[in-house]
Design brief:
alpha+beta; seven-stranded mixed β-sheet; 5 helices; globular; about 35% helix; about 120 residues; Beta Polymerase, domain 2
Length: about 120
């Protein structure tokens, strides 16, 4: 649902990493990026709105909205990371957690696809 919400506001490169077996603190990371700070904030607002509407409630905590380079939304079972493009490249969570199975969002199908474990 968070990936769908990000995609609805043109989040780029949206993906989900299943990190439970690697870190044990949360089940998944939803990762996406925006072209500018305004879009990063719009994506975070939409994720929060859609998840509340679906009954998931508010995030436990939100960090990064002040400068909007990297907004982190902690929902307990999953964490949403919304980056500016250049911040996403710098922190490279996909590589850092490369052992985690991952799914990419496909806008044409409107779904997560391609479960894989990266080397």
């Amino acid at each position: 649902m968070a990936a769908r919400a990000a995609s609805s506001k043109l989040g780029r490169g949206t993906m989900v990493l299943h990190v439970e077996q690697l870190i044990g603190l949360t089940d998944a990371f939803v990762i996406t990026s925006g072209a500018n700070r305004r879009q990063v904030l719009t994506i975070s607002d939409e994720v929060e709105r859609q998840l509340k509407q679906a009954g998931a409630g508010s995030p436990i905590s939100v960090e990064g909205r002040d400068d909007a380079r990297w907004v982190l939304m902690d929902y307990g079972d999953f964490v949403v990371h919304i980056f500016l493009d250049e911040a996403r490249q710098f922190y490279d969570l996909e590589h850092l957690w490369g052992d985690a199975p991952s799914w990419s969002w496909d806008d044409r199908q409107g779904a997560l696809v391609g479960a894989s474990s990266q080397p």
